[in-house]
Structure to design on (155 residues):
């Protein structure tokens, strides 16, 4: 008989337990089922991107939008003020950018940090099943039916 291994990843929930129970009912022994929990990230989430790492969120998007809006308003009001529309447009653009940047920093550091803490740091679990080639298709179907995140076969 040709042996192969099925690798799958699951979130840590009841569906993993149900999948293991269903696989055991198909005749796979406990010695041929191996579950490995992945370690959680221990370092703090960085807000500022570096050259080698980017999380895809921009810190200046709100700042730029507010800088544009504030500069238009500041330039319009600047016609009536002493320094004129150009200086007041630049001053208000700077103020709008600082306000927008502060909003984004507070959002990333405080609000999203609370959401990450509330959601919890549940890591994925890798499930390795060693079985015969004739059982592989049925076991793969069980894994997909129990919401596996991914499945791979290796001979």
């Amino acid at each position: 008989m040709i042996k192969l291994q099925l690798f799958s990843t699951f979130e840590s929930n009841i569906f993993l337990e149900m999948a293991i129970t269903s696989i055991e009912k198909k005749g796979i022994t406990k010695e041929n089922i191996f579950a490995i929990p992945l370690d959680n990230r221990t370092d703090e989430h960085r807000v500022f991107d570096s050259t080698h790492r980017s999380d895809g969120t921009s810190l200046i998007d709100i700042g730029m939008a507010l800088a544009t809006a504030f500069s238009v308003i500041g330039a319009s009001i600047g016609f009536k003020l002493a320094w004129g529309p150009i200086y007041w447009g630049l001053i208000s653009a700077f103020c709008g950018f600082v306000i927008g940047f502060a909003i984004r920093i507070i959002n990333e550091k405080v609000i999203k940090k609370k959401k990450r803490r509330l959601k919890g740091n549940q890591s994925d679990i890798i499930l390795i099943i060693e079985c015969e080639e004739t059982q592989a298709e049925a076991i793969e179907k069980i894994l997909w039916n129990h919401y596996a995140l991914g499945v791979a076969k290796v001979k």
User: Anything to note?
Assistant: The helical segments are 14-25, 61-78, 85-119, 133-145. Residues 7 and 152 are 5 Å apart (CA to CA). The chain is about 50% helix and 20% strand.
